[in-house]
Amino acid sequence: PAVALKARVAAGGIDEAAARLLVERGIAPVRGGEEPPGFSWRSDPRLTRPTAVRMTEGQVRGILAAIECPVRVVYANPPQSYFPEEQRQARYACLRDASLVTLEGGHHLHMEQAERVAGELRGFLEGTA
Question: Under DSSP, is residue 55 helix (H, G, I), strand (E, B) or coil?
């Protein structure tokens, strides 16, 4: 597991604490007579397949515009390459009653800053933030 942790951190975009969570749930021992046993990464193969239903940007924005309840949006900063700032802002603008929080982090923001993300959402749900 230590080698897997080091490799995941070296791959970039994630701190050691978040990488540890991914490694703990993402590796499985391989028993093949080795002492100690080796490990392999396990994952849901569906995550590597194309999305079954792909929406256009117009459809996404239409769905966002139809949301009638208050929404808390949590974005990671810096923006990820697959979700650039211009697109984030355009989607946020579609929401009728939204508040925006931007936190330092990446794709795994919810793991990198779990307490902060939870606190933001808790405050929103409790009406205190």
Answer: coil
